[in-house]
UniProtKB/TrEMBL annotation:
It comes from the Eukaryota. This is Vacuolar protein sorting-associated protein 35. Plays a role in vesicular protein sorting. It comes from Penstemon smallii. It is found in: Cytoplasm; Endosome membrane; Golgi apparatus, trans-Golgi network membrane; Prevacuolar compartment membrane. InterPro entries: Vps35 (IPR005378), Vps35_C (IPR042491). The keyword Transport applies.
Amino acid sequence: MISDGVDDEEKWLSAGITGLQQNAFYMHRALDSNNLKDALKYSAQMLSELRTSKLSPHKYYQLYMRAFDELRKLEIFFKEETSRGCSIVELYELVQHAGNILPRLYLLCTVGSVYIRSKEAPAKDVLKDIVEMCRGIQHPVRGLFLRSYLSQVSKDKLPDIGSEYEGDADTVMDSVEFVLQNFTEMNKLWVRMQHQGPTREKEKREKERSELRDLVGKNLHVLSQIEGVDLDMYKEIVLPRVLEQVVNCKDELAQYYLMDCIIQVFPDEYHLQTLETLLSACPQLQSSVDVKTVLARLMERLSNYAASGAEVLPEFFQVEAFAKLNNAIGKVIEAQENMSIAGVVTLYSSLLTFTLQVHSDRLDYVDQILGACVNQLSGKEKLDDSKSTKQIVALLSAPLEKYKDIDTALKLSNYPRVMKYLTDGTNKEMATVIIQSILKNKSCISTAEKVDALFELIKGLIRDLDGNPHDELDEEDFKEEQSSVARLIQMLHSDDPEEMLKIICTVRKHILTGGPKRLPFTIPPLIFSSLKLVRRLESQNESVSVEEATATPEKIFQIVTQTIEALSSVPVPELALGLYLQCAEAANDCDLEPVAYELFTQAYILYEEEISDSKAQVTTIHLIVGTLQRMHIFGVENRDALTHKATGYSAKLLKKPDQCRAVYACSHLFWLDEHDSIKDGERVLLCLKRALRIANAAQQMASATRGSSGSVVLFIEILNKYLYFYEKGVPQITVDSVQGLIELIKSEMQGENTTSDPAADAFFASTLRYIQFRKEKGGAVAEKYEPIKA
């Protein structure tokens, strides 16, 4: 059925175009022979094709445009006729004898255009005459296109300031009256279209009406282009008349489109000065009209106008724009009871954008908008539809983008109240926005109170809300989220140690609620912030007595130890052990031996009870040895206990090469240049000999299992340790022991069962070159190396 209708319409359009072209041909022939009578006859017959009611607006437009092109040629002919002496008044009378009213009016508009241009009669009289006669066409589609043609041919002939048609008898008011009358009639025809035809085709008619909306809207554009329409005339005549038509038509499509047209075509300063009038129309519109979009576009235009220069801002203050917009939004929401939450939030989001642009210094206005949002959201479920979510995130992000300072957002009492209505997912999204804003703008949060408020805002990332686990979140996204929280913790700072300690305690309170999966990301930055405070306290002058201060290194180490213990629930023993060692090193810098020893003890307990993976054990042993090497506060007893444990752990590693490397690394624990009390050559030699025995055992195992003695890399590494301690002056490391090791390596490398290893060859060659280099350097070093034969 639909297909047949479309085919029929194509046939009717084709027939109409054919009839139009045939009559246009005869009209052209009459024009060429200057035969006015035949030209009028065939032009009227040509225009009769526009009387059809069978075409949809889209098809009718195609027919109309062909007729329009022909009428332009006819207009040129009429101009030439008047220049040849034909009376334009007689011509104006003559065309009115056309048989049918529609062709008659098209011809009348065409001749009227020439009549006005001739200036033989006042333009206002001709325009008034034609616009009144056009009432004769009441068919919606035919009437709209006829009046559109009238608007098209007359727009450059309206009496206006500076126009050639301006005069005593012709004023701007006449032009305005003409355009308003044409607009009013066109709007009535446009609205009437919805009642043409059966109810079942209503949707189709609405679509057709939408296609024709620009014909009506062009009138408002013409009005806006009239130079003589100043603010007073717009305020007193134009806007009230247009709004009266908009409100009274009671048509959803027309009201929405025309309100949008008014906002788009007239100047911003006019809107500002007539804000009350324009806004008063909004609650009177049909409840189904999308008023939120209309108001949002108005506020967007005003915001852009305010952004154009500081000189226009006094105008906004003078008309109390904020109060009027806020009041209007309240009335619209009240009038449209079925407005969605997304619509409400959109309105307040637009108002907030406007306020931040115009009244950036008025935080009370911003908080008032957020408060109004809370009132609208109260009693409602959490926002879970995408439109509402998008708008609420835009609303909450606006202050952050404007002020570039989280401190300002924290002053807004209603900000956290709005966030309570967000779903868990949106809460996390908003928390990410807040953190990114802080990181981007390098905002400084320097009090525990503000930190507490901030962490309440970003709780979506700090802990699982409503007990929902985060398993559904992508692992990479989760890591990225928690890394941003970690960076945030590092940015928290106060110059006052007491306040900084409060900040650390506040952060600790929040992050410990985050669950085992988050702790490995959030505890380390907190520990390092705490250690930074410890070192700052140590470096400060002793101006505050210990009794007066609550922020003492001892107090901080207690908090830190308790915090690291929380990692046992994860568990991540390697991370916890590394943090204990970091803290031990900080305690060393503060000369707190008992604290440092306890921290090392905790690290050793973790190593013994929790770390069973061989690779992790190797990494951890080297970390322990490296840290212990840098410690200087331990007494002989404590140091011996710790070093004995470390060397014992080294010798118990699973793989022989790992054992060997860990044992010779322990040799550094017994000889420190900067500490005379830690220079035990005997134990250095003992570690190196033990390493040699392990290396030799590794060689034998390789020979037994593979049939070859394997690489000599371990021997070369030990040789380098011998050279290091020999150069440092350890008396137990003698020339003979170094020489003997060199000979051992050479013999191993030349052995029949030795596997070729280019890397080991290069390493040994490099070591021998080093010995030669030290010999050639001269002085005491050269003397020391001279006896060694490489």
